[in-house]
């Protein structure tokens, strides 16, 4: 008996397990990344059928999207690009699904020139693809996007991460549901940059526990047409393809004598580029060193699926445990910082939980885009281990940094006394009611005592004059500006002080400008008016209690710290 097609009730359960933590917004739209291949075609069909059936049953109590849109990316990188694009559009039309084709305009900023042989085509194409998909979500009003990644893809992803030296957390593979994040870019408007909008949009993968053969069976059952990307079967092109080829050959040869099967596999994979063959060797070594499960690369796909499932489940358990410890260890903290009680840290014994705990804190206070590797200190093992060793073993150690744009400082916390931070804590005996703690905060770009006079980068000294003037001329009600990838500064243009209105009307003639700059050692935002040869005039500033002081003016500015302590 062959593999069984995916049942609709079964898919409903898969889909609901991908629901964002706070549910879907009312009347939201979900996008599907549609390549025209079997995986995305199957997903689009099942999702369209599910949402149609649920609407017909008037399931008003269910928190589900109400409509679906198909998003297809035409990379224009291979001969089959046009046929795949045409198939994806035809499938969406046949299913009665809204469809949008997204072409990558190679050579037009922020996109690079079209990649050619010898360049990292897979990485370049991926960054461009995700950039246009997010743009498609914004243009169509989609709150989330679903991808057709399945259980076989999950195994490949786990192995690829092992090749890059990941921890067991990374070997757990892709999450069923995660925030998009602020993007991979570091410059507003650059490739991969999405800013604060990415914190409210989600990526989901409902088919992540389904084998490829069941997806093909579903397509056959419902007579769904699709195309296969020929480059997926060329092991010399990418590491993922080489892994896929290796696993396919081993699966096909599982009934042969082991030595014969191994010879066939090695023969088929001979002649690969050195960086790919080297990565395959790294995978074998890393897989053998896993502590949580046994991952035998010669044991076949069934064994690998089980191993990766164990690692994925372990990742979810670690996330929940870190959330529990953060709630117990976090003390009242100044805005944008996190103060952690030292005496409770030893309760976290598991090294993997310690690692995930530190990464979560770093992501929360870093000035790098939320969700990016840079916010995690690029996950450099030696740096993260240095943080762990210091926090868990050294009460009152000196301040230090170890990547991610995060400063770690010793602190002495008391509910009744002023918070002491940094050198004030060294060698000090605790008084009654005091406790040792660690404060994580943004790493200063320059020392605090020269902050007002130093020349800062455009990311920290942000000229918003033109944006304010344009928004006012259009009659907009408000303007939002992301500052330092940490604060969302909102301007209510109906309440803007008259002195600023007058200055903005003539800014091109007078040269005055309105800026957002950092103040205090925590780099909180303040809004200033700058005139040549005059000191800056401050119009709004964030203060200790998290409120905004507008210096006697109406509350025309709000400042919200938007980074999250969530696992995803």
Automatic annotation (TrEMBL):
Keywords: ATP-binding, Ligase, Nucleotide-binding, tRNA processing
Tagged with keyword tRNA processing: yes
EC assignment: 6.3.4.19
Gene Ontology annotations of biological process type: tRNA processing
Swiss-Prot/TrEMBL catalytic activity: cytidine(34) in tRNA(Ile2) + L-lysine + ATP = lysidine(34) in tRNA(Ile2) + AMP + diphosphate + H(+)
GO molecular function, a single term: tRNA(Ile)-lysidine synthase activity
Cited Pfam families: ATP_bind_3
Residues covered by the tRNA(Ile)-lysidine/2-thiocytidine synthase N-terminal domain: 29-245
Ranges that cross the membrane: none
Keyword hit for Ligase: yes
Root EC class: ligase
HAMAP family: tRNA_Ile_lys_synt
PANTHER family on file: TRNA(ILE)-LYSIDINE SYNTHASE-RELATED
Name the UniProt record assigns to this protein: tRNA(Ile)-lysidine synthetase
Lineage: Eukaryota, Fungi, Dikarya, Basidiomycota, Agaricomycotina
